[in-house]
Amino acid sequence: MIAKDLRINPLRTSLTALSMFIGIIALIAGVLVGTLGRDYLEAVNARLGGKSPTYSAIVDVPSSVNIQVVTALQERLAHFRPGIASAQYHLNDLAIWASSGDGNTEIRRVTIIIIDAERTRIMPAPIIEGTWLTGADEPATLETAVNESARQYVHDGTVALARTGNPQQVPARVNGVIADGTDTPTIYVNATTLQRYWPQAWEPDGLTILVHPNEGVDDQHAKTVLDDLLFDVGTGSISSWNRSDNADDYEQVIGFLQLGVTVTAILLLSVSAIGMINIGLAGIEQRSHELLIRRALGATRVSIAIQVIGSSVLLGLIIAFAAVLISAVLVWAIPWMMPADSPLEPPAYPYTAAMIAACASIVTSLVGSLAPAIKAIRLQPALALR
Length: 386
What we know:
Layout: H1 2-8, H2 10-49, E1 55-59, H3 67-78, E2 83-89, E3 94-99, E4 105-108, E5 111-115, H4 119-122, E6 127-130, E7 143-147, E8 158-163, E9 166-178, E10 186-190, H5 191-197, E11 207-213, H6 219-233, E12 238-243, H7 247-296, H8 301-337, H9 351-377
Parallel strand pairs: 5-10, 7-9
Antiparallel strand pairs: 1-11, 1-12, 2-5, 2-11, 3-4, 3-8, 6-9, 7-10, 8-9
Helix pairs in contact: 1-8, 2-7, 2-8, 2-9, 3-5, 7-9, 8-9
């Protein structure tokens, strides 16, 4: 009887289903948008300042550091147990040969960062084309990667590196193009290959090591382990240790975003419940004669209440299943719509939000059908005889 009750008035059932469907989809979408918004802020800031938390260790490194030391440091940092660590060397006189406006080539200063392959694990940058730098496992040639703005300096898969005031051009292979979140032309040079294949340019005047500790690891413990590592490989010691990510700039924004999503979800469910109550009360007005006849024939108030509430709950279950299924398909399709340079990872389906939405659908059905059920059981059977 409960199932048949849904077919008595198709229009009423359709309006109720539509109201519930919109409420559930809006709840899942609100949570997903909030999650994507938080992830986007975190990803954008991670590209520029590192994953939260990221610490910068400034190391005074002598220019006489040789390839054995660089390779040993790179290998040790690749297996840094307290977290992820990446070395960035400071070389101030590197530049590139690039075309000038009159068609000639000249030395041009652009941002050149001398790093290892671990950097993108701390400051993630989506690969737009090609690959990232290789590790310290004997790369075949001097290699680089460029961002989108520096793509203009790539010719035949290479860039021409130079030193300020020196006409010598050294070709360097470009492994790939990355989206690092900056508009400044930037070229990333593999530190190991630079020291091995162009030792004349290897005159570092400093070293910065970026450290992203594992969850639950104290930053002072990570600093101590790093200091011991530097001492073992003979690279000096830490002179400065500071947090360098931009978490303080966006954590408050994320808090407001999550609060706004929560309030919006509650309001959407409230609107859905109110819509169900209105539709349910209108349905009782239309079906009052039918319900009165049932009461006159001996139906109890409990059976009347079960019929009214049961039909709403059954409809809620059906709509919840349909909404969760459709939302899962939409979330599955999101990665196909994301651009290649998006800082976001493909989002995972918000199972928790879906479970909350399904439960909210049942609760909304109960709340929305409670008032109509009370009105139905208060109908007097004697009115059916009039």
